[in-house]
Amino acid sequence: xxxxxxxxxxxxxxxxxxxxxxxxxxxxxxxxxxxxxxxxxxxxxxxxxxxxxxxxxxxxxxxxxxxxxxxxxxxxxxxxxxxxxxxxxxxxxxxxxxxxxxxxxxxxxxxxxxxxxxxxxxxxxxxxxxxxxxxxxxxxxxxxxxxxxxxxxxxxxxxxxxxxxxxxxxxxxxxxxxxxxxxxxxxxxxxxxxxxxxxxxxxxxxxxxxxxxxxxxxxxxxxxxxxxxxxxxxxxxxxxxxxxxxxxxxxxxxxxxxxxxxxxxxxxxxxxxxxxxxxxxxxxxxxxxxxxxxxxxxxxxxxxxxxxxxxxxxxxxxxxxxxxxxxxxxxxxxxxxxx
Amino acid sequence: xxxxxxxxxxxxxxxxxxxxxxxxxxxxxxxxxxxxxxxxxxxxxxxxxxxxxxxxxxxxxxxxxxxxxxxxxxxxxxxxxxxxxxxxxxxxxxxxxxxxxxxxxxxxxxxxxxxxxxxxxxxxxxxxxxxxxxxxxxxxxxxxxxxxxxxxxxxxxxxxxxxxxxxxxxxxxxxxxxxxxxxxxxxxxxxxxxxxxxxxxxxxxxxxxxxxxxxxxxxxxxxxxxxxxxxxxxxxxxxxxxxxxxxxxxxxxxxxxxxxxxxxxxxxxxxxxxxxxxxxxxxxxxxxxxxxxxxxxxxxxxxxxxxxxxxxxxxxxxxxxxxxxxxxxxxxxxxxxxxxxxxxxxxxxxxxxxxxxxxxxxxxxxxxxxxxxxxxxxxxxxxxxxxxxxxxxxxxxxxxxxxxxxxxxxxxxxxxxxxxxxxxxxxxxxxxxxxxxxxxxxxxxxxxxxxxxxxxxxxxxxxxxxxxxxxxxxxxxxxxxxxxxxxxx
Amino acid sequence: xxxxxxxxxxxxxxxxxxxxxxxxxxxxxxxxxxxxxxxxxxxxxxxxxxxxxxxxxxxxxxxxxxxxxxxxxxxxxxxxxxxxxxxxxxxxxxxxxxxxxxxxxxxxxxxxxxxxxxxxxxxxxxxxxxxxxxxxxxxxxxxxxxxxxxxxxxxxxxxxxxxxxxxxxxxxxxxxxxxxxxxxxxxxxxxxx
Amino acid sequence: xxxxxxxxxxxxxxxxxxxxxxxxxxxxxxxxxxxxxxxxxxxxxxxxxxxxxxxxxxxxxxxxxxxxxxxxxxxxxxxxxxxxxxxxxxxxxxxxxxxxxxxxxxxxxxxxxxxxxxxxxxxxxxxxxxxxxxxxxxxxxxxxxxxxxxxxxxxxxxxxxxxxxxxxxxxxxxxxxxxxxxxxxxxxxxxxxxxxx
Lengths: 339, 489, 193, 197
Fold this sequence. Notes:
Chain A is an all-alpha fold. In chain A, 61% of the residues lie in helices and 0% in strands. Chain A starts with 11 loop residues before the first helix and ends in a 19-residue tail after the last helix.
């Protein structure tokens, strides 16, 4: 039994490395259910991110190796790779990865300066620019593609046989006209193991394991994941009038990017709120917006937009959640007396 | 026997860190005088108490206790050994500025000639005690060097003895509380009686059981009628900060921009009180306990050192060759500062020389992880402040609470990007202070300018009035003359 | 009631005047470098927008339609808006001279803020009732205020960031505004009115 | 024809009516919200360095503050330096300008000093000093109160014997400023080991 550390990791590189390690269970689960395409995504996005990072640093005449070594670009690349559809073509992955790094990060001055989450910016840009590609190339976990099929998809030849609507999509479209009982006849439910929906919930569980390990390691605090998941659950439960038409709470939590985002996306410290209270508010905001956009908007999974929207609110959140300074009466008052 | 109680502190320090203390390194049961050095260095402006002026000239012979520097605040510094003033020149000093400054160099002659003050006889009032503190050169010996007598005002309810010594490696206060317990208790009692203070709190971290024992036995022997409230604190940095000690022991939050004294509390270092006790007997501050510690020293220990002793002499006293060290930290790993010129002499505020090999990891960009904010004992957001300072906006940093920073450097210790946050904040605080000063001067200049304009206006009006009167007079006279001429014609 | 709420949400978020319809960009870029001035600007614009959408409705129904002078609509609305702006300016000069000076030229420019005229014209185009007009105006104003203040917060942070030299100042602000518009595209299709 | 006339007439009447009503409203508003003076001037004045040096072309800081409030450029104050320009820009919400001054005059904190052996006691400098920082009487030596001198150098010109020099402002002997942490890396801190227990 390894003892829980008393402090967060003492080095930025260790922080990034811990997050990467925590992604591993999720990556394994995704590869098992969604095929080798996941690994292809990673193998494309990470080198692309590193290359973009190096080029940007070189253009700005900054030292390159320390910034590459801190693994922040690797992490951004990994996150964007895991967010993209598993049957995405290579060009989409490279575009998403490089635009994350260049537009999301280096336009603002590099690590630590970006106001928005680079991975989600890259994702949203792709979603707007290539909506069909981004929404139709999700692999159906029931027909996990073999290497050859995955490779064809990677080269841009999409294969309808292996792609299918995601769980959230199903609820927005097909299941809308079905009763809850009819919907539960879907193979994804009938093939559930241990009560977990085939594919989606197993992946969510794997991410949850990694995320809890991050909390245990004090790399992240509980505020963000709890804030997001509880808000999402509460809002869903509150509006979940009709089981036949509304998407159930647990689907909201586990079938989309909910768990993955709660532990790995929202916890990006640079673009998120900075105080514990602020993080809670940030996550609550993302939760509400996610529900609204998922339910009423055009996009099946709304985390990216919700995160971006809340990123823009971060300076305000930071301002209003500043703790009361010792020796001062109110928390938002400006400069005090001179010492 | 004095009344006392020992209690555990019921409050928890918010933020703060648990650094490895390394205190066992230098803890010794005894504490001896070092051999007198070959020369003693007394910076004229940096001995504590503000800029000063030399009271002696080159060639003068001084005794132990002869006043040699008088500061603007009135504090007098004395020669710590008898000898001869051989030089008054710019010399390296023990100060974070790492500059050279005018200093008096004294060569001790090994004689025991003394030039002490007359002992004070009880009863004496607070003013007498205050004058004595000024004459004996008593400053806060904890490190800040704030002139102690300025804290002594009537209407104070509580005296806190700050025996927390939370800074890692340091054991000077611990040693003093063990070997000089009676002086400390006596000084505290004298001060309390002259200021009519009823309660004396001793705040002490629970990693100093020997000191606690010594204090207990000293209190049993003491005949004072003060009540001693001994508060055991968690060993957590920075519980020894004045503000935090006041809050931990009394639950009072000292408001921003004011000192503890304005909340009716005096906080003193044990050494200050021991020195006060001796000053009452007529002996000014000539020596202090200094911790010599760090892994790079062969024989870490606590020693009693004449003020002005060069650092190199102390390194040698710890059986180490000064040439083997590149720099030495004065005052501990958290709040200390580096000195590289070992000819500088220690001052009254030098409590520790720390010699160790340290590796400074390269700084990387802030990722706003907030680790600094969770350990900040004043609940600041250091990541936001340093972002503002690096971005060149002092105003924004001040808005975020820069003025409240106590520069404890707990943020530095946990920063995964190894950013020297506390250094930025110190610089920012200096700049903010300068700016406030400029604004103050500008406001005064405006007042004088406006007063002058009013005056000039008034003078102009007066002149105008006079001129009008004169004109009227002339006109009158002319009229009269004309009339007279007419009449005569 | 639900309709009115939906109108507000639609005008504020889904069809945000600045980020989705790209109206009123001049004050959005001009008065967003500091939060204080952004707050002031949003208050002033909220006031003018609400006032002018109501006044425009009244002009429309009480004056222009009876006189059969709909062709004067744009002209009449601009006069009404100008009066409202002038009134706001006078009031602001008295109550907060500093804010008045901070807003500077952007205050009279509310007159030509296309969002204001846009709201008035869209109201008449959509044959909103009085209440609907007022709520549409408030919604538009809320949306404008929201994005202006959020954007000002982000820009204050950007001023301190280590932005590459070619992108400093207006260019990074425009890029960021673009990303903000991108984020607002998430609301697309939420309410169809 | 009549239709067109009617339309135009209605339009003219309608617009006149709007204009008339608006005019009345604004007339009363201007009465209710009339402002005495300009409080903005004081806010601007507070940011100026109060040297009263006149380098901006105005007789003192307050007149310049008034001029700024009326729209004069904000970069005419050399003693305030770029920092003052930036702060004015921030106060007024305008883009900052580069300081309008020679490079030499920027970033110099000077004070006047009277070479006392040369002073003939003419009082001309005393009259010139805008902030009453020179003391002395006729035929007697004058001296500058260094703490009150704003360094405006208005006293240098009038001196008939050229006995006033501008020198850098003397600092208190214990004045010091920490070094910027990004210039030298301090060895004050290694990583502090943490207790794990």
